[in-house]
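[INFO] parsing input record for Serine/threonine protein phosphatase PstP
[DEBUG] input buffer:
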Amino acid sequence: MTDNGLLELRYAVGSDTGLRRELNEDSAYASPRLLAVADGMGGHAAGEVASSVAVAALSDLDDGLPEDLGGVDLIAALSAGVADASHRLKDLAERNPSLEGMGTTLTAVLWHDGRMALAHVGDSRGYLLRDGKLYQITRDHTLVQSLVDDGRMDPERAAEHPRRSMLMRALQSTGSAEPDLVMRTVVPGDRYLLCSDGLSGVVQPETLHEILTDVDDREEAVRRLIELANQGGGPDNITCVVIDVVEVTRPAPHTGEKSLAGAAANPR
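[DEBUG] output buffer:
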């Protein structure tokens, strides 16, 4: 909370199959307090199922939380939601062996006035635009990122590496993966972007910065980002959520405002 009023989130969400994939294996979820992007693992069994399961777990978490999150441990709650997603993947694969090996990335935020918990596993990303500067607020759990961290590869080479999407950590039916969990403080005017690597792997950070800075309308910003990824070849599914932190004088109701996109919105 600020001295003048309450902080709330305004958001837009979009997802596109891209130009080279037959199915959209991404899923997204957005509500006034919980937002997430999940990218089903390409080349593995039932990636669209995995991302939908992860999003469903977070939707259920959202439904089960009290309306007032003032006394809730946001990190613990979000961690429990990710753990539930992991358990659901395992249980589903045990009941249906054809789904063995499915997996998904997950980047999610759980919000309450001025406080934001962030959970992240895989190579979907979270960005923050604040005071005119764009920051990547997640770390890719990929082989090439680990080489960059160890000083064995420079970022420019990593961005072009043929195995840059090889994940070292993800939510999978075959094992558990601990997400990165962090608490963040937000301020009025912050703009966040959650996206799958179908966007961040094609559109350069400088262009992301330009769109997020110049395009005020959230829906239009989402459309422009998806268009740019497709103009860059659209090699993968593209999903993004644009979130603005705004100051209000009275809280808005938190019912009936959920949005689903991608596989989660179009179950097979």
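[INFO] The CA atoms of residues 144 and 158 lie 6 Å apart.
[INFO] shutting down worker
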